[in-house]
Amino acid sequence: MCVNFDLHVVTQCREEDAEEVFDKEKANFCDWYSSSSSAFNPSGKRADEKARGAAEALFMGEPTDSNDNDEDISAAEDLFK
Length: 81
Description:
The chain is mostly helical. Helix content is 40%, strand content 0%.
């Protein structure tokens, strides 16, 4: 990753004279490219894994008891009778 790379900038590059890369799937060249020593951030990977685990726990948790669900549906339907 380049030292000028910045997700918070519209063109994702802090170098003002650099040409904007529109198709990031194709090969491109930049005169201002300089390797960053902090390109790999292992703490970011841990944060990603923690977030993924929290999302899985939220959306793939234990199924609710069907009897409780039926009572809730009945109570909701009673409101519209």
